[in-house]
Amino acid sequence: NSESCDPSSFLRHFRKSSATPVMLLRHIAQAMATEMQEGLDHPGERKLKMLPTYLECLPTGNERGLFYAIDLGGTNFRVLRVQLDGKEGRILKQESIQVPIPQEVMTGSSKDLFGFLAKTIVQFVSREADLGFECVALNQKRDIGFTFSFPVNQTKVNGGSINAWTKGFSISDGVGEDVVDQLEIALADMGSVNTKVVCLVNDTVGTLAQCRYWNDDAMVGVILGTGSNACYVERAAAISCWSSPPEADDLTVVNIEWGNFCSELLPRTFADEGLDADSLNPGQQEFEKMIGGMYLGEILRRVLLKMAEDTGLFGSEIPERLTKPFSLLTPHMSTMHGDDTSSLEVVGSVIEEAIGVKYTTLATRKVVYDVCDIIAERGARLSAAGIVGILTKINRCGDLMLSCLTTPNDTEVKKTVIAIDGSLYEKYPKFRNYMEDAMKEMLGEDYANNVTTTLSKDGSGVGAALLAAAISTEL
Ligand code: ADP
Q: What ranges do the domains of the chain cover?
């Protein structure tokens, strides 16, 4: 129809279908809270997996001694140690190394991979005395926290079997085997008997643990990076599949795997549908596909392509590069969105560099800027709704959502800190501002003062070492 031929009416329509008014966000938050409860009540059977971590403690700041962490993410392996000195000295000393995982290890056998990890650990541990770290007593093992960012079926705090190798790893075996056992066998093969993995966690848990070390009010850990996920502090008694939970009042941490949240309430557009259909995992990770750094730039590309086709946004030709999936990345989007020049020069140069369109009018650049704004605002506000959903679940959302408050005592106002890591939060200021503003809108100015979001950088490394310390201190 004639409407679809005009960029400004296309934009108006797209803005409307991406809208996230505060009442919708509140409903989404409520739906997230409901799904979280469903996932807890029906382990493994609902869209939110609500994975137990089996942690029985979190860092308090009182921990002392030398502790290690290892972090196996996508492309690098990190080994790290911290020397802790209780609340007075805190983190006295910290050191880490990071090594790229060689291609032949990423595509070899699991024995190759764990052998490589063990070798790196043994080399790193052997240098502790030279560097002035206080040594661990001869009869005592070095406790390690292990951050493992692949799907695992966790069965205890320091063990779980690998569900699948993802993220460019194509290891020929190892699925179904215990990650920690395999590492400990490899360490023993190297002649190292002085290390012990005391916890297996994912990056959200590390992020929360790092923040909790400094602040008892930290209740939620969120990753807003390539993908998105969150964890939170829950009562141990809520974990129905835990065969020997600690005391009913004790706390633990649950990994929500919130990326897989889906709901009719989510404001999806043609771009989300296309992205999902062409993805490696159609029908899955609906929420993550609207907020993750891997996807925002691709949503932008799809919208601009459709505008090029339907409205001639870039003239009579369709720019060739715009037809290539992932030719626009989220950093392109945040660079354009951060353009504060009156002539939108930065937008112009990104369009030239990434899409290959040399000349654009100011009107076209303004349209591109607005599309970035709409996509980022939607992603940020949905992330805020996810966080408020968690606050709803743990009764820390104020009196605006009375339905979630079970007893009058729960209305007592508690300070709550949300620990966040990831480039979208750290390096995309407009995304972060939209998210924080949406939380204020949802919670109300007054109550929002009790809720703080904070960057918990590098939690997947340090956080795991702090957890290892907390566990050793508890024992
Ligand atoms: P990861 O989640 O992979 O551990 P990050 O938190 O750094 O690592 O997130 C990487 C994601 O963030 C990528 O999808 C990338 O496109 C995106 N990203 C990186 N830098 C920026 C930026 N300045 N603005 C927006 N997004 C960014």
A: 56-214+458-468
Pocket test for ligand 1, best of 204, 299, 330, 350 (most atoms within 8 A of CB): 330
By most ligand atoms within 8 Å of CB, the mutation choice from 147, 290, 423 for ligand 1 is: 423
SS (H, E, C) 37-92: HHHHHCCCCCCCCCEECCCCCCCCCCCEEEEEEEEECCCEEEEEEEEEEHHHHCEE
Catalytic residue among 71, 178, 203, 276: 203
Asked whether residue 294 carries a pLDDT value surpassing 50, the answer given is yes
The answer to whether 255 touches 225, Cβ cutoff 8 Å, is: no
Q: Does the active-site annotation cover 250?
A: no
Rounded Cα gap, residues 330 and 42, in angstroms: 36
Whole-number pLDDT of residue 350: 98
- At residue 399, the pLDDT reads 52
266 CA distance to ligand 1 centroid (A)?
A: 23
Mind listing the pLDDT tens digit for each residue in 331-366? Answer: 999 999 999 999 999 999 999 999 999 999 999 999
Structure tokens at 473: 């201190």
Span from the CA of 298 to the centroid of ligand 1 (angstroms): 13
Q: What average pLDDT does this structure show over 81-85?
A: 95
Q: Is the pLDDT of residue 185 over 90?
A: yes
Q: Which atom of ligand 1 is nearest to the CA of 292?
A: 14
DSSP letter for each residue of 284-350: S-TTHHHH-HHHHHHHHHHHHHHHHHHH-TT-SSPPGGGGSTTSS-HHHHHHHHT---TT-HHHHHH
Q: Which residues line ligand 1 (CB under 6 A)?
A: 73, 225-226, 293-294, 329-331, 334, 422-424, 427-428
pLDDT tens per residue, range 377-407:
999 999 999 999 999 999 887 654 544 433 4
Closest C-alpha among 112, 85, 91 to residue 101: 112
Q: Which residue's alpha carbon is at the smallest distance from atom 7 of ligand 1?
A: 423
Residue 293 C-alpha to ligand 1 middle, in angstroms? 6
pLDDT band at 408 (very low <50, low <70, confident <90, very high): very low
- Per residue in 314-338, pLDDT (tens digit) is 999 999 999 999 999 999 999 999 9
Domain 56-214+458-468, CATH among 1.10.569.10, 3.10.20.880, 3.30.420.40, 3.40.50.2300: 3.30.420.40
ipTM score of the complex?
Answer: 0.98
Active site residue 149: yes
